[in-house]
Design brief:
Molybdenum Cofactor Biosythetic Enzyme, Chain A; Alpha-Beta Plaits; four-stranded antiparallel sheet; 9 helices; 27% strand; elongated
Length: 251
Amino acid sequence: MNNKSNKVNAAVIIIGNEILSGRTKEINLGCISVWLNRLGVKVEESRIILDIENEIVNCVNELRKKFNYIFTTGGIGPTHDDITAKSVAKAFNLKYEFHKEAFAILEKYYKPGEFNESRQKMAKMPSNARLIINPSSGAPGFIVENVFCLPGIPSILQSMLGNLKNEILGGKPLISKTINLRTVESEIAVPLKVIQEKNDKVEIGSYPFIQAGKVGVAIVLRSEDESKISICNEQVLELITSKKIQIINKG
């Protein structure tokens, strides 16, 4: 992998026509990102792509060379448009075939006579793939090298992440501190830029919001080093005091 930094990073590929059409709301990226942050892995890129084989193959092959970990969501179900497993097999030049353990899990999960041809499709994966156990609905995800393939249904995806903790070799967990202010971004933009220039080891984000009909700004400080966040936080608080800005809450 041509990872240019010492940090452990990841990319997320969200697969599904229903996401791009707007019919289904995408929430998996946030869930995966928060979970990875706790393990010291920073999500640095995400893409939403169609259920098209070449699109999936090209995206997986491009990103798996750039990032430590790749997570895909969606496209591993029983229907004709669930082509993620087949596409990942093609990306790695592997056979697309029944996984014996996955087949056995699904055969046991369904009642006699219910494990039909469509459901059997969920046991087809790239050869030598390692399984991601699914405690919610039986059908497992899978891992090929640094690519982790998960379902698109958020509740099922979330239930499967806990089984991956030992598969991730992360760095230092990212620490985050948030200060919510009753102000507008233009009021603090220039001095906040000065603070950022003094604290290159801290990522400072400014995010406007509307709460109870009133405008506010959330200042978010992120770093692997708690002491550097503390120093930066003091400087932000000095800025807030000097401008007599109301703090809504801190976290």
